[in-house]
Design brief:
253 residues, alpha/beta, 2 domains, 6-stranded mixed sheet, globular, Aminotrans_IV, BCAT-like_N, BCAT-like_C, catalytic activity
Length: 253
Amino acid sequence: MAGESQSFNLMTALTYSPSRPDEPFSLLNRHLARLRDAHAAFARELPDCWCASTSMPDDAAMRKELERAVEEAKASGKEGDLRIRLSILPTGQPHAECFPLTPMPSYPVRLVLDDRPTEYGEPFLRYKTSQREVYDEARRRQGATLHPSPDPSDPPFDVLLFNSSRQLTETTISNVAFRLSDHAKDAYITPSTECGLLEGVMRAELLEKGEIKEGVVTIDDLREAAQRETLEIICFNGVRGVFPAYIAPEDLQ
């Protein structure tokens, strides 16, 4: 157990855009706060892990590492918007990697419901780290590829997770919100943190702006809305922004 508690990095993922010269790193303050919160939580809940004995880098050091990674990406020929993975290593050092940013399509992506509940007791399922096995395994079970397609006969994009109380929580790479009625003025409901989920930075941003609200949505709620043909789903994270999704009624059986 002690060895396992040392073998992870804290992580967050953000974007860089040269078209935003005043703040090229998206929601940067939220991302840095997310890493600090995760470090404090692991130090508190897993006192044998490296977070309890190694300090976090300060914000200036993390920003400097982001800038270094962007300059390295540009020197290697990467142009335009970038996806960045910012990690805090067990040594306490920040490390950033840049990748080309592929925009999401305008059409809704297909989700499927997982076939078993996810248990959210441990901090690895409440804070983003390099230990992603639970999410990877859910995609393997359901054949999800993270590759969008407009063809409903193609494999699904992602998997919708739920807890032991049959309350919906998140997908394997994003937070999610549901509109269950056909009233456009009704708010999108995003699962409450008490349901179990990773609290993403875009989720926090949308909550603060009042564009979504917290609540509890069960599998039965989803089925009833799908039967009424009033179900709307949006997914969101710090890299892909907000994008529409759907789940076919037959995938809710």
